[in-house]
Specification:
single chain; about 550 residues; alpha+beta; Phosphorylase Kinase, domain 1; Transferase(Phosphotransferase), domain 1; five-stranded mixed sheet; five-stranded antiparallel sheet; elongated
Amino acid sequence: MTNCNFSSFCTHAEEVCVAIWKKENQSMSVQTLCHNPQHELENIMLPNTSSTECVMTSMPSENSMLFLCSCTREHDCNDRLVFEKGENGFSRLKGKDVIPVVVISLVPPLLVAVIATMAFYLYRTRHLSKQPKDWTPKRTHYQSLDPPEACAGEANTSDYHGKLLSLGEDANSDISSSCANSLNHNTEHLPIQLEALVGKGRFAEVWRARLNHSECGQYETVAVKIFPAVEYASWRNERSIFSDPNLKHENIVQFLTAEQRGGTASASQRQYWLIMAYHAPGNLQDFLVNHVLSWSQLCAMASSVARGLAHLHNDTTPCGTPKVPIAHRDLKSSNIVMKSNNECALCDFGLALRLDISLTVDDFANSGQVGTARYMAPEVLESRVNLEDLESFKQMDVYSMSLVLWEMASRCDAIGEVKSYEPPFGSKVCDQPCVDSMRDLVLRDRGRPEIPLSWTIHPGMQVLSATITECWDHDPEARLTAHCVLERFNTMAQEELESSTVFVCIPNSTEQQGSPLPSNHTEHDAGMPPACPPQPQAIVEAQASTSPRPLSE
């Protein structure tokens, strides 16, 4: 008789060779032994003990499938197990075929275990790669500075960083993918040549620069924001905000990388760089000074600002990926750049704040009165920000956005005569007003920029004017959200598409055009909230002294 890799011999003449095949709880076993047929085995008397073959016979068993066989007269007769095909579906198998059967029965659970392990590994790898990490510089081949469309940008992150950046802003920046810069950014700085100073703020200077591609002698134009050593904290905060991969959006300025330069001999000489997309039109404030907007331009620009701010404030990306909401806290026209497609992109996140729900009130203790005084919300000027409600920081941004929208609207030719550019509150305050002067104007006098009656004659401007006044409401809870503003703009755009011609009534009386509309005429009562109020209806009544004319978009 054989048993796996060794043989044993029955020592008593009355013993016969026996084989037991048992399947219990998805496990299968085969046992060979010698046994006296006069005694029970497994509470069963052995059948057919005089056979020369070990023919397996099904035996009753409560918790398992059991087959027995016994044989005699030949050595190792139980080495070959014979299964007769019967009601259990077994066919005639020889003993040596049992091992392949056992192996095959074990393959499926092993495959399941391997697949589960691989799936867990891939999940962990991708999940960890999406977590915000402390920035570590890496050089990659850059693709376009404008990120890909919503979901495609997130689904193809590796492809996105694997292609070459192509700005199209400069005739010399049309570079093929074969000229990609392949420096290891862990050890080398980007080959950047500063060209011209294009802006200067409280914390940093902004330079137009060349990102050289030495392999093919071509370059790309980028923007470099340079912080002095004393503004390290501002650079670190902005770098941290940009390092979140979920920040990428078409209306957020595209970030490339951050670097520390100089200061090998003295830390005070060190510079901190942020390298970003360069947009030739410059910031929104300078653009408004030099350009009068058409109605279509105004719509595109206003919608893009609302879209960018809504993305900052959202807790998910357009594809549903969770993200930490961000409050800008210094939103103004000089912190918005103009793109070549008449859209805007938010920039300058030096004061931005991640609205992480895991943070406590103590963590936000010093997060109240920051920003530019002219654009500060009433509650910020009064130092009465509700730090227990993270929505408070978003409401501050919405107030600032309303002033930016007013700036754009004041330079649109749809209102008739367009005056020279003035910042919000114009000559009511000095060029750089302090918090105290803005507190008197905004809190004590409840002052807001004027909205002339002529703005309400144009149907679209009427909607925009109402939206602006709802966004700068004195009560933070009564203000629209950035998402609601975006929905309102989208609805207005859809209605204009469905209407082939828009008629506008322009009063002949210049006195009527110039009469101001009270700045707080749509202010809500205290405690009135929220969600998305219905869009104001643009109703224009023709008067005897007016004549309608089509507005060409």
